[in-house]
Every structure is written in C-alpha cells, then in structure tokens.
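Let us practice reading a record.
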Amino acid sequence: MPTVKIELLIGKDRQTLIKIRDFVMDSVVEILQLPADDRNIRLIEYQPELFQMKPPYEILIEISLFTGRTKETKRKLFQTIVDRLESNLLIEKKKVFIVLNEQPSENWGVRGGIPADEVDLGFKVKI
C-alpha cells in the first residue's frame, strides 16, 4: 500500500521513464513483501527551472508507508532501488535521493474511507 513518487528533470525518453518506474516499484513490492498488484506510483518530470537538487542528486524518490519496518529492511530497500537503477539503466547510485515518509496506519483512509489499522491489509508491516 505504500505510495511512491519519483521526480526528475524532463528529458529522458518514455521507455526509460517506464523502466525507472518499474524498477523502483518492483523493489518496493519485493523488499516490503507486498502483493504483486499493490502499486501506487507517480513519476513527475520538471522543466529545469522548476527542479533543483544539490549535486550530485538528479532523481528524488519519496515513499510514503506505514510505520513499522526495521532499519535493515529500509537499508535493503534503498540498496535494491539504487542497485537496479544502476545495473539496468546506468543511473549512478549517488544521483538518487530516497526519502521514506513513515506514518501510523491509522492516518491512511483506505477501502472507502476506513482507517488502515482497521482492515486486513493482506501483508505484514513489521518486517
């Protein structure tokens, strides 16, 4: 159920953008042990005057998720994302900035406005 937002400068071809999206989301699904169809992702491109990152960063990935994953799971998630982007698309690891926004599940309204802590999510959070 995490939501993922990828932000970068405009200029990459459509196929590369789709691969970036898929490599990031596949990493999230795998490492967080989510159902295969649990994909909530946006990729946003900006004109140069509307996107600034301190060098060497060029891609910002924000992942909002429920609180509860261990530091080791988070570390594995970070490494899996940057490893896949580098090995498959030649995007240098040091150019990727990843931020996790952790929130209690009670702060998420799902399945018609029900707090997420009141529904069976179909996956474990404490991994």
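A brief commentary: Strands lie at 3-9, 41-46, 59-66, 96-103, 109-110, 114-115.
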